[in-house]
Design brief:
Distance between the termini: 63 Å
Number of strands: 18
Strand content: 15-25%
Mean pLDDT: 95
Shape: globular
Structural class: alpha/beta
Strand order of the largest sheet: 10-11-12-9-8-13-14
Helix content: 40-55%
Number of helices: 17
Oligomer: single chain
Length: about 475
Amino acid sequence: MNDIDRMKDLLARQRSAFLSQPNRSLAERRADLKKIEAIMLDHRDAWCEAVSADFGHRAQIETLLLELSVVVRGTKDMRHKLGRWMKPERVPTPLMAQPGRSYVRRDPKGVVGIVSPWNYPVQLALLPLATALAAGNRTIIKPSELTPKTNALMADLLAAHFPADQVAVIEGGPDLAEAFCALPFDHLFYTGSTRVGRSVAAAAGNNLVPVTLELGGKSPAIVTADYPVEDAAHAIAWGRFLNAGQTCVAVDNVLAIGTPERARAIGQAVADKVAAFYPDFATNPDYSSVIAGQHFARLEAMVEEARQAGVEIIQPPHDANAVRSSRKFPPTVMINPPDDLRVMREEIFGPVLPVIAKPDLQAATDHVNAHERPLALYVFSNASREIEQVLDNTHSGGVTVNGALLHVANDQLPFGGNGPSGQGAYHGKFGFDELTHARAVFRTRRWHSTRLVAPPYGKLAKKITETALKL
């Protein structure tokens, strides 16, 4: 059986299992979530080793903090609150529909397909999985082919804890991913680039499969004129260069309100902070490698284009051949690159940060609005008026004020994009709602008022109709 036939067989088996048990109990779902927690905590060293091997190098604390702890925390939160979420929600019944009662059930959708990316190969596969299980679904995961060791570990651990007709992993390259997205799932959950997301949505649309698209885009940070440079630099350096910039909500560029000199001062402060975070980055165990050679080459081409255009570039001293061999791309800050360069047109997804001067806050929000809506937006200001001006005049998936990435860390907030940066949201209750069907139920009594307006229509039916028009 080839991989495509195996996928189809898995989908058929999971759909058959779902139909035989369309609503897993609260106890069963909680037990499923406990298994995910155990998979994280009992094998933490194995996860760290597999991810680091796939990247070439990644700091253990980044895998523990940004992957395993996110899954454990989110899963525990869902497990504790699941009983409340599963209860039918009573809603009012209007007078004209009386006697009766109305409520909304949250029913599982069925079989959920999850396409996960390489940049956080544990978190972005297993947190959607935990959400799907909390919602009572069955799931097939297609992880990125760029993380084979992590995928193999994931497949082995999940197979040891779940039957294949409930949870399964299918591995393969882009062709398999394309075929995966064309399957008639009951919901498709995709995390990745906007470019591929468009194709995923089109493939799912052929089967009218509802989709959650967690995409990306160029997430800007606006630093207002009076905000302390050092404070902004610390948050921006952390939010850009963590995981070597390979984060969908990483700060993609800085819009510095003021003169070109202020942009230069912010850029230099960020570069200094990065040097303090990662001294001798090429051998620093806290600094991650770029995932693959083609991604390293893409970043090199972006920086070289800017250099040829005369852009001021700040990089630490390094041996180009040595860093190319280790794929540890030098942390790079660019000062005021023009808009036509690739670094300003494409999502960077690496340790490169442009800092651009904007004369005022209006110019900064105009810049944001002139581009596709980003997955994240960052605002650095101590003035509520300025913060509200940015929030009122821009659109994005989420926002952190005076920090970076932190809105994603709160499971009580929805995580998702807006337009080209994604559709749908998850984390906590938002994910439970995303992966269940809101099923309307109206229960009437033996006698109902509709008998009064049944044909043939007489005076009473007309009077009731006139009353209904006035309500």
